[in-house]
Amino acid sequence: MPRISEAVRDERRQQFIHAAWRCAARQGYRDTTVDDVCAETGLSKGAFYGYFDSKQALLLALLEEDADEVDSVLDGLDAKEVGSAERLRRFTRAMLAQGEDPAHVQVRADLWTAMMTEQAVRARFAEVVQRRRERLRSWIEIGIANGELEEIPANAFASLLLALADGLLLHGGLDASGFRWANIRKALDILLTGVVRK
């Protein structure tokens, strides 16, 4: 039987990942089955297991894709000629934009649930969060050093911003009518303005 090319393999794997995002948006990742994902792609279970050895492996792939998107945001902000406060503001806005995507909200909520019981998910997510925290901390430290930001514990403030983003996504998933994202953005802008040195 002829082997498929690496490009076709990558494309088929991505089909399963995109299908999982769509299923998660409709019914939550926890309630999505491998059969659901296969039906969404029109591909077989045998094909699925050629790319993922378990549903958890698929969840880790979604986490990787989500992490890659955030890393792209961080890289893009690093390349911009803007101050630390503006970098932090743009980062928080990008994270809040995920709250308007039901798939991201569902997968993030299910991810937090999985972290309580699945060590591989917990370890990978902890690694991702640590990498983000280090990047934000470096922006904050630069802002403090150049006099743009108030003297604020950099690691603590980075952790606060990350926790706010994740917490808001979870709260948005819990009760979509609990707040308006436009108002959250406004409140966070005011919060960030508060750490800018006058």
Protein architecture, described:
It is a single chain. The chain has one domain: Tetracycline Repressor, domain 2 (Orthogonal Bundle), CATH 1.10.357. It has nine helices and no strands. It has helices at 6-27, 34-41, 45-49, 55-79, 84-98, 102-117, 119-145, 154-174, 181-193. Helix 7 packs across helix 8.
Brief digest:
This protein has 198 residues and is mainly α.
CATH C-level name: Mainly Alpha
N-to-C span:
69 Å
The CATH superfamily is identified as: Tetracycline Repressor, domain 2
Estimated radius of gyration: 19 Å
The number of helices is: 9
| Major beta sheet summary | none
Order of helices and strands: HHHHHHHHH
Q: Report the uncertain regions.
A: none
Mean pLDDT: 87
Number of strands: 0
Helix percent band = over 70%
**CATH T-level topology:** Tetracycline Repressor, domain 2
Quickly give the CATH architecture. Answer: Orthogonal Bundle
What portion of residues belong to β-strands?
Answer: under 5%
**Per the principal axes of the C-alpha atoms, what is the gross shape?**
elongated
Determine the structural class based on helices, strands and strand pairing. mainly alpha
**Total of domains:** 1
Which labels suit this protein?
mainly alpha, Tetracycline Repressor, domain 2, 9 helices, 0% strand
Present the secondary structure layout:
Blueprint: H1 6-27, H2 34-41, H3 45-49, H4 55-79, H5 84-98, H6 102-117, H7 119-145, H8 154-174, H9 181-193
